[in-house]
Amino acid sequence: MLERRTKIVATLGPATDADGMLDRLVSAGLDCARLNCSHGSHDDLRRRAAAVRAAADRAGRPLGLLFDLQGPKLRLSGDVEEQMVAVGDRVTFSASGTPGAIKVEFDKFAALVTERSQIVIGDGVPRFAVERLDGEDVVARAVSPGPLSARKGINVTYARPELPAITEKDVADLALACELGGDFIALSFVRSAADMEQLRELVTGHGSRARLIAKVEKIEAYEALDEIIDASDGLMVARGDYGVEAGVARVPLMQKDTIRRATQAGKFVITATQMLESMIQAPEPTRAEATDVANAVIDGTSAVMMSAETSVGAYPFESVTAMATIALAAEESPVIHGRARPIKGEDTSRAVMRAAVDLADELDATALIIPTASGGGARICAKYRKRRPIIALAHEETIAEQLTLEWGVYPTIMDTAESVDDMIESALTTARDFAGLPSGSRVVITSGRRTGTPGATNLVMVREIP
């Protein structure tokens, strides 16, 4: 059981609705299920969320449940007639329907655009540099060729904050996610830490403790990355829209840097978009895709994610199996990059957890066992990217589910004990039974003076499994 450290996220959809398919994905290595709020009705989201909880019960282990909010999305009007644009062509974009202009379905489009902006259509072409504003119209010159057609998506780089970070649709979807007990909520098109702070305020208002994920897919987000990391519980490297905005050549270094900086801060990070794209229609990935997944794993990503591969693809089970196999093989790399370095001036709890990680490594312990009320201790240990398995014994089911995206962490449930001695004995037997640890094997276990209290860890000991 204690083999693969990198976690697997799969998007649910029509392809995973077949009887028994979700159980097969779990057996293949699924750790967290993603529900994309951009697709399907609220009834679909309810049904799939319930299916995830039922599959977790059957598997006897926690599964994470991630709701991915759509965020603000610009589109061309449905009245736009298809046309090809050549480099150098001047095109006028208008929200008001100026004759001869390309109509945009956003009434403040001109206010959105700045002198630094580029207007990018569809998956990256055509691309326009803004030349000037003409009242409510935007005049732009094509810098790359491509087609314009009805309902195409638009990205505007370096935009003014005229678009709402959280739309009316997002508010409704967020309420449902909180009602259904979502473990993670991801926000699309994040531009600043303020966007995540707004999301946290709404989530808290619903009485939810969901972990919040910032999707890094805009140039502005990458430029404000440190502030966004501070305001978030985790990040998603959403390579699709970032590639559209910045150009595909800019994606690899952004991905590597985001993984490194998130890990240093002790935040989990998911690498997503087109990881096994060919498996939408093919039973095996390409060599390039396998290398892409492996590089993300070696860079230290906490999790890798599939979208259309599992939601609408012909081979969802094979996709999860391939992802798990590639990740496990890549973890044989002699170095996993991006691991956090010790920080001077740590508080007692963090220093104790780091000492536990080092001790488990020095003693070649079978595992590091962490009873936890909040999950914080396990998260601290995960950021060092050591190969020693971290068995997190959560006192709440929700905490266990929220640890499913942490690198190298294997969460399960354990009741709170009356005394520290009882807690330690219970932890040893629970970890043994959950992870199949052999009797007599040496482990490192952490504790505090009070059981079930977040942040009270001040004790590290070496014990043998009974």
TrEMBL record:
Gene3D superfamilies: Phosphoenolpyruvate-binding domains, PK beta-barrel domain-like, Pyruvate kinase, C-terminal domain. This is Pyruvate kinase. Keywords: ATP-binding, Glycolysis, Kinase, Magnesium, Metal-binding, Nucleotide-binding, Pyruvate, Transferase. The lineage of its organism: Bacteria, Bacillati, Actinomycetota, Thermoleophilia, Solirubrobacterales. Its EC number is 2.7.1.40. It comes from the Bacteria. Residues 4-320 form the Pyruvate kinase barrel domain. It catalyses: pyruvate + ATP = phosphoenolpyruvate + ADP + H(+). GO terms for molecular function: ATP binding; kinase activity; magnesium ion binding; potassium ion binding; pyruvate kinase activity. InterPro entries: Pyr_Knase, Pyrv/PenolPyrv_kinase-like_dom, Pyrv_kinase-like_dom_sf, Pyrv_Knase-like_insert_dom_sf, Pyrv_Knase_brl, Pyrv_Knase_C, Pyrv_Knase_C_sf, Pyrv_Knase_insert_dom_sf. Its cofactor is K(+). Belongs to the pyruvate kinase family. Pathway: Carbohydrate degradation; glycolysis; pyruvate from D-glyceraldehyde 3-phosphate: step 5/5. It holds the Pfam family PK. The keyword Nucleotide-binding applies.
